[in-house]
Amino acid sequence: MLTLEDIKKTITELIETLGEKALETIAMPSSGSSRRYFRVKTDKRHLIGAYNINIEENDAFFSFSKHFKACGLPVPEILAISPDKNVYIQTDLGDDTLFNHVENCLKNDKFDAETIELYKKSLEKLVDFQIVGHKGLDYSKAFPTPAFDEMSIMDDLNYFKYCFLKEQEEISFNETRLDVDFQRLAKYILEAPSEFFMYRDFQSRNIMIVDNEPYFIDYQGGRKGPLQYDVVSLLYQVKARIPDDLRKELIDYYKQKLSKSCRDARPCLSTTTEFDKYFPTFVLLRLLQVLGAYGFRGLIQKKLHFMQSIPYAIKELLKVNEQWTMPFELPELQSVIQQLNIVLPKYESIEPERLTITVNSFSYKNGGVPYDKSGNGGGYVFDCRALPNPGRYAEYKKMTGEDADVIEFLEDKPDVHYFLQNVQMLVFQSIDNYLERGFKNLQINFGCTGGQHRSVFFAQTVGNMIHENYPMVRVEINHLAQHISHVYEAK
Asked: Rounded to a whole number, what is the largest CA-CA distance in the chain?
């Protein structure tokens, strides 16, 4: 594995092959994968640098991206790849996702027309991925498997069994009979037409919104497969909580676009009969897989965010179990699903714990390192005294690190940017970890001689960065020498 400095060096070198100069490389908050992303400011634009040691997965992403781009599909463009293929540069699609719009709708308790239109645009593009993107795609590059086969289905079902169900002491079941039900379900799902591209993780967090149009990322796990899985992934995303009437409207819209696209190439799909026939079983499969994922991340890896998501998945599964009639009996699985009511209260009672991050600027000369009132021992302490000091210049003596002239002075110094990048990498790593583990407090301190210029600049800058990248946390910024505080409440 490469060190952080090696990754940044490789990114800089790749940027230079594009005829551009990397001015700033900032680590982005980590996601659910092991890939690491960096936003790079060059002398011409912003780009994304990525690092991933899984070369097979990278090859799938490179191959699929090139093919989809040639098909006119809205995906990032791969601009440069390192010789060992573990670092690459791609276009920057920004930070706005479809899920951001969904969250706003949930806050207002209503899905607005703009968000509904974005869903329709996304579904229309999904049809293009499935039909147009499928033609000529090199599935030999697919990772980890070229097709959605019986093993893929059983992996999803066993994910639920081993990572969620077996963690519930309150639920009784016969594992042999459950496995029989799993095999029956898998056999039926495999009958669905599958000569299409299956995105595999088609959900609103992987749909970027650029100028009110959807763009798509994280399709490297795609493979040849059926149509229904991706529609379910998007419209039954449990945290999105799409109302039933809107969901029906969106499914109908998708089927209209599908019929139009398939009319010439596959007439038998023009009536969408086959789509409807298998759809309920895909809903069941996907929701079981999601509970397995929440079980693994939440119950086994002890990540609070995923534990708090479990009730959403259970409620959706219980509702679907009442609404849909399966074309065959699944007695043991039905028994298990009905018993989920027993464990629902214990997950609903998990209180959301907000992380509060306190960022202080202080003076080594007057007061020293601040006391950590949370009792956790102080967190980070960064010494800014090795950096250029505006306080040595008469024009800045009466200013602080919040004044525009001081900010401009410091931002003009390469050492300041290097220091900030390293601070951000350390701090963001801790925030990601603290959020996963449900910790409540983190303190970050910046000190300089007088606590007036450099420490104030860094405390304010890092505090703002945390607020922008982690709106779910409460950020308190305290400039102790000036007796000034700023607070960003958690959203």
From this structure: 83
Sign of the CA dihedral 421, 411, 378, 485?
negative
Enumerate the H helices of 227-295 as residue ranges. 228-235, 244-262, 273-294
pLDDT tens readout for residues 143-189: 999 999 999 999 999 999 999 999 999 999 999 999 999 999 999 99
As a whole number of angstroms, the distance between CA 409 and CA 184 comes to: 69
pLDDT score recorded for residue 304: 74
As a whole number of angstroms, the distance between CA 268 and CA 255 comes to 13
The hierarchical CATH code for the domain 98-348 is 3.90.1200.10
Strand ranges (E), 107-233 = 196-198, 207-210, 213-216, 223-225
Instruction: Bin 302: left if φ > 0, else alpha if -120 < ψ < 50, else beta.
Output: left
Q: How far apart are CA 73 and CA 92, in angstroms?
A: 16
Q: What is the DSSP letter of 45?
A: -
Would you state the structure tokens that stand for residue 411, as one six-digit string? 């931002």
Domain 4-91 matches domain 98-348 at the CATH topology level: no
Could you tell me which of 368, 369, 364 has the C-alpha nearest to residue 379? 369
Q: Does an H or E element contain 36, and which? A: strand 36-42
Count of Cβ atoms closer than 10 Å to residue 33 Cβ:
13
Annotation: CATH topology of 4-91: Phosphorylase Kinase; domain 1 (3.30.200)
Give the tens place of pLDDT for each residue, 227-265.
Answer: 999 999 999 999 999 999 999 999 999 999 998 887 755
Residues 243, 239: Cα–Cα separation, whole Å: 12
Report the run of H or E that residue 239 belongs to, with start and end.
none
Q: Are 10 and 88 in contact (CB under 8 A)?
A: no
Domain segments of the chain: what residues? Answer: 4-91, 98-348, 356-488
At position 355, the amino acid (one-letter code) is L
Taking only the tens place, the pLDDT of each residue in 300-358 is 887 777 888 999 999 999 999 998 888 899 999 999 999 999 999 999 887 666 789 99
* C-alpha span between 245 and 296 (Å, rounded): 32
Mean pLDDT of 442-449: 96
Distance from the first to the final alpha carbon of the chain: 36
Nearest-angstrom CA–CA distance, 295 and 275: 30
Q: Are 445 and 380 in contact (CB under 8 A)?
A: yes
Q: Residue 47 belongs to what H/E stretch?
A: strand 46-51
**What's the angle, vertex CA 114, arms to CA 108 and CA 117, rounded to 5?**
125
Backbone φ, ψ for residue 356 (5° rounding): -105, 125
Q: Name the strand (E) or helix (H) holding 340.
A: helix 340-348
- Left, alpha or beta for 200 (phi > 0: left; psi -120 to 50: alpha)? left
The CA distance from 457 to 126, in Å, is 45
